[in-house]
């Protein structure tokens, strides 16, 4: 299948050639024809599948093809709602690339930056508005945003918008749109709230499901280190002695944790910057650019800030903390191994995070291979029924194969309570006295 066969117009084809996109990704192949035909769409897909172009390309084509298009001040012809600032900027960058030979106007509305320029953009009107819900609501409340002319609505990463507590903002925004419109809805996961939102917002949608959430995990080489919380930093510094980890995106649970980790890494002479919600938009963009250009080796991020990050050829993702929402693990490791490349995901699990690990392994339907042979093995708590764990671990290289086993003839549970039945000598995990 080619982009020509999808009946995209010459200016768009020319822009795609400039981007070196030679053929559509599966979601683009399936989404572009129904969207061009005016249908509602429900796409179950995550970032990395090419979903942004799957909605932007047909929208650009539809909007640019309209004769007698509504002009005039304050008119907004399509609205893309997205959970994070980074994602909004990314979509805007993509729009500029794909629409470079067309004369469409866009604007981005997001928090963390002064409002004045956004007021002016809204005053002028635009073809495509890309917005995060919070700031858009603010501007609507102040009477700056008029959504009455929106013909096409995109809800991007709707599940994440729900996770971030945007449901009421989303509903209030949608209530201001014309009932007669085209709606494109994307979500990486399908919890019941999403299904009911889809039912209430879409009319006879075309449904497309690309790579169910668990399959991302199959492309990526994953390893796990059980390690006590205070030893996480020394372990990370130890692992980073390996020069094959040229750069890595590191996830922490909290903003403070991210800052603390950056300080620790910097002290160990490992270049690192943090990206999280307390940083100004400019600081976040600068940290991202430094990382992309190789000025910093480590980018330390919280989940919310990392959501929109698209870094080509990111080889390593490190989970300094395991997330409490299992889908988040898949989103995180999905930052690597994009566009068919393989990637490496390293996770640290402290005692308190073992329940999270169990949830993650249930979701991805696999046990993450454990590296037992490292300088900072976890000490177990007295109360743990499965406190003693025997592992045989061989690591052929930092990226090499990992095998795991239990003490010969025993059948014990590992730290995560998993059955271990294979044979081999092992390391005994000390009980904390
Ligand atoms: P997305 O899933 O929209 O975040 O896209 C993931 C990455 O794939 C982005 O860096 C896009 O620029 C890139 N991409 C999207 N569509 C194509 C395509 N047809 N060919 C090559 N790369 C693409």
Explain what this protein looks like in three dimensions.
There is one protein chain. This protein has 433 residues and is an alpha/beta fold. It folds into two domains: 10-211, P-loop containing nucleotide triphosphate hydrolases (Rossmann fold, 3-Layer(aba) Sandwich), CATH 3.40.50.300; 214-421, Rossmann fold (3-Layer(aba) Sandwich), CATH 3.40.50.300. The protein has helices spanning 10-18, 26-36, 51-65, 85-98, 116-124, 133-141, 158-163, 167-175, 192-201, 213-219, 232-239, 255-267, 281-292, 303-306, 326-333, 354-364, and strands at 41-44, 76-81, 106-109, 126-131, 152-155, 182-187, 206-209, 220-226, 248-251, 272-275, 298-301, 316-319, 343-349, 390-391, 394-395, 402-403, 412-413, 419-420, 427-428. Strands 3-4-2-5-6-1-7 form a seven-stranded parallel sheet, sandwiched between helices. A six-stranded parallel sheet has the order 8-13-12-9-11-10, with helices on both faces. The termini are far apart. Adenosine monophosphate (AMP) binds at residues 21, 24-25, 28, 47-53, 310, 339.
